[in-house]
Amino acid sequence: MDDHAAGTELTDGAAAWLVALDAGTADRAAFERWRDADVRHAVAFAEVAATWRTLDGVRALRPLQQPAQPMPAPRRASRRMVLRGAIGTGIAVATGGGFAYSAYARDRAETGVGERRMIRIDDGLTVDLNTDSILYWRTGGDRPTLWLDRGEAAIDCRNGATPIDLRTPSGHLKLGGGSFNARLGASECALTVLDGSAAAGDRTAHGGERLSLTADTARIEPDDDAAIERMRGWRQGVLVLEGDRLDHALAEYNRYLRHKIAIGEPKLAGLRLGGRFSTSDVGEFLSAMHASFGIVARRDADGTILLVTA
Questions:
Q1: Which CATH number does the domain 237-309 belong to among 3.40.109.10, 3.55.50.30, 3.20.20.370, 3.90.180.10?
Q2: Which of 16, 82, 123, 285 shows the smallest number of beta carbons within 10 Å?
């Protein structure tokens, strides 16, 4: 096989992995074995991923409020062929959601339900990963890049001269020096700027503001003190409640619990709660519920904790 044919085969293989990763059909462990087996595999995948990243950068230049114009689909070329052609010509072509290039990152961290993990990316960048979260990252090049794939992360960037790229399923943000809290919802990323600044397209949020990012919009609004206290609290293993309804409080608390708490009587849903509770010791919370409201906890056969009046 000549060098050209070998290079084409490598690119096809890398593009196939990227397409499968984007579709959610790839075995990530198998992909990582393939990538790490030969440096040429890693280089080919990096080229494909770089094309994908270029596309994402082109998307970021489009005003967030303006819908993308649909591109005509090729009639015969496969997505692997389109990616191969894009690499050869420098043309970026859309082949999916644009998030599968997280596989380009060499480093990955994950927390289970109820776990937290502190990650030191480099001397000026640390990330505190909250419960049930996944983060990828890559250093080198002109700036570090983070991919928040699931959950919530507190990001401390103390090197203001080097902005951070934060990529999420909802879009792309640039973080200057400062402290930030990023949380993924069903269809948006909510980024609170504790200090410093963050930008999405032409929108910039500053300290005390929340930037809510969806696939095609960016909204900035002041964040309230109670919400900021909750963000600071989870980093200390504490759930902070300030007049929250019981049903809302449980939705938040259950993020940290393998055995969830459920309301056994509808009338209890509107009870208002205040205080600071350990996210790792549910007994403390249940004792407070009994002392304050006479509510008792019963366990179902599946482990669910049911709250009812005595």
A1: 3.55.50.30
A2: 123
Amino acid at the residue 112: G
Q: Taking the domains of the chain in order of start, what are their residue ranges?
A: 3-100, 105-228, 237-309
H or E segment and range at residue 109 = strand 107-110
Identical fold between 105-228 and 237-309: no
41-53 pLDDT per residue, tens: 877 777 777 665 5
Separation in Å, CA 156 to CA 18, 105, 122, 125, 210: 30, 20, 11, 6, 16
Check: CB of residue 154 under 8 Å from CB of residue 179.
yes
Answer yes or no: is pLDDT of 68 > 60: no
Could you tell me which CATH number the domain at 105-228 has? 2.60.120.1440
For the chain, how big is the Rg over CA atoms in Å? 23
Q: How much is the pTM?
A: 0.70
